[in-house]
Amino acid sequence: MRLLPRVVAPSLLALWITHAPLHPLDGLSAASASPPTLEMQAQLRKGFQAAQAGLFGSAELQLTASIAQWEQTRQPADELAALYKTRGIVRLERGQPERALSDFSRALQLSPSADAAEVQRTYQLRARAHQLLGNVREQADDLSDAIRRLDALDAIEATNPYLYAERAAARMRLQEWDGAAEDALQAEAEFGVIGDKIRKLLASADAALALYGAGDVAAAVEKMKFVFKSKGIPASNNPDDIGLLQALARKDAELHLAYAAELYSTGAGASVAEEQWTSGCIRLEAYVQDAVARRGEELALRAAEAKADETGQAVRLRASSVSDPFGTLTPNTDFNAALNGLDPKSPYVTQRPQQGFFWYKTSEGEVERRDRGVALAEVDESLSCRQFRSADWLRANRPEWATSLVNKVVSYSSDVPQKPIVMPRSDRSESADRLRRQLGIPTEPFFTPLNKEGLPLKNTE
Question: Can you say where the TPR repeats lie in this chain (predicted)?
């Protein structure tokens, strides 16, 4: 039995070390190589533990040393491929996609016929490196290679909507509309199967644009209406879902702009189209304001925590939405959280995203497994619906919008002038909302002002 650093990576940080029998590959014979020494194994374990702890600089150094040792002692190719793949993951985390790409390519070269699941994941990882480098064609090709290997996996692993969602996005950028629509619809269906309502709606929004590009305007419009009607359904108290909900808010807002242009092109009238355009403008402005405020608050909280760490006082601060302004009289104090079986540092208590919280241990003495979650949206504060009135801006920044849709938006924009964006005023204070949430009192009305199609109600309705 040899020590094999297996890297199972549905996300970039799902790493652990396990034991498994090996087979020689690519002319490197396991029989001809001496087993790794205890020192080599200790070096390797340090690399994996550093990666698991988020110390990616240290992890890269340790893994690089292990790779050199494995090559010098002619260890089996599949072990060496696993090391290259792991270092590639670390380099992606360090913002080095070009170097990560080299590692993933080397891993595939070393073990092209290894375990189908490992090869499939490596193609997906390399596709993400290509995405970061702007190599859209290569990204789509790697995703296709990964998808072709799904049939060789078991039923659970073969259900991978992420692959289809990523390839749909790549194909839209390549203007391969038919394939993009097929992928987005497949992703939508599979996200529904696994119960991920937020990502299902994100795939629905992508499907609407892809269907539009494919020329099936009627189906695209139906998908738009489905998103409008369903966007309020996903609910989550996991702060790592905030980034996904922000993406859904942006796509919903932009689909309202697209729908306005489509309505105008069909002769629905300027007033009807402008109603949708205005709704999209307000939603987009709300998305920008929320994203800027959330990111600013999170950066301030991290800075305050770092300052506290310098004095030896490790603290985990709460987001303002769940702060305890009344001290011990606040319903959701750390003490009450503990009484209810919740760790006060849990993201469900602090409502802080990307905390890498230790949810459980694999075994005593082992490093805990963690998932950093989805990052908060980074937005340009100048983003608004006014930019969507420019064909040049749309072509440069929204390649997923088909030329036919861009032309309709430009036609609407030339005929219907942009009015000032007037944001609705809330009749409640933020502090009052925070207290209502802590008491379990709803902060939103039970009935929303939307009709069956998810469109704003008229006064007569």
Answer: 81-114
